[in-house]
Amino acid sequence: MKINKILFAAAALTVASCTLPHEDMSVTLGEPTAVELNVEIPTVGTRATTGTDSALGGISNVDWDVYDLRYKVQIYDVAGNVIAYSTEAYDVNGYDGYSNSITLTKGREYQLYIWADFVKTQGQDLHYNTGDLRTISLKGDYAINDESRDAYAYFCTFTVADGAANTISAELKRPFAKVRMITTDADRLSFGQQIGSIKVSYINDGSTVPSSYALATGILGENATVSDVVADVVSYTNDVTGCCTLLTDYIFAPASGQGSVKISLEVLDTYGDHIYTIPTKVVPFSKNQRTTVQGPALTGNADITVTIDGNIADFTGGDISF
Q1: Which of 152, 174, 310, 312 is nearest to 255 (CA)?
Q2: Which of 17, 160, 175, 176 could be stapled to 131 by a disulfide with Cβ–Cβ 3.0 to 4.6 Å?
């Protein structure tokens, strides 16, 4: 049985995969003092039923009986060479946010890195390598149609003030775009046919699906390989009659402007047999926004539209037209 929240906090823990020294607290810059850290993630409010809407993010769609939301915090000296603080904490029954009081040195400048992602086992990475939060990278096989891929990040530098309250309020944002493809003609298939899965490839001829993300700079790593990835189609309760969400993915996005991905997608039935190959689409995306490719993909491809939308509570930013 899960408990509501488990905190693992220690004021000077070494990062698991890092050999950086601890901060020397004996320096004469100032006395150790408490810094209050409050972490929030923009959400849609009360979590609805699992898998309710592909338009929303992981907090609204994951099965909280299977996944925990993990917060990881690392604080370095301003040069990024010495780790002063490291901790993990977990939301296990739904989103709750995270807060903690940290002891640091007055007058000293620090770098703060925060990462929040979904895990199945506490203390173990699932989709991302997080030993050193300065750069997050993909872990294991590339996962399509998996809402637990959603994650959130934050970076800032700060100086611990002398003689004043020290409070940091961190609003985490996705380093990703969410890309989804919806067909509106799933009810027009031949008698007895049902969509069961998809086979996806991202064609690397100028499009970008990065494999890593640097929290401080937003610099993206080399392209990930996505070739003939087979994924079951997820049944979302908000898919109206005839509609089927074929694909959802969370893709590391540029800090500003747009990226793009060229998608090749084959639709398979519940036995894994071919139904239809959707002509290749070049799909643009932007950080912390949702790109939707929607239309009669199986029978009337010319009517497909592509929109980027940030005007929902679970994502930020305005609409982008192209």
Answers
A1: 174
A2: 17
| Helix locations, the chain, DSSP H | 58-61
**Are 155 and 286 part of one and the same domain?**
no
**Domain check: are 14 and 158 in the same one?**
yes
Return the SS3 of 60: helix
pLDDT band, residue 109 (cuts 50/70/90): very high
Sheet holding 212-214, edge to edge: 128-129, 135-138, 212-214
Domain final residue, candidates 135, 154, 171: 171
Final residue in a domain of this structure, among 144, 171, 198: 171
Instruction: Report residue 44's pLDDT band, with 50, 70 and 90 as the boundaries.
Output: low
pTM for the structure as a whole: 0.86
Q: Is residue 315 part of a domain?
A: no
Helix, strand and coil in the chain, % to nearest 5: 5, 45, 50
Residue with tokens 């006395």: 31
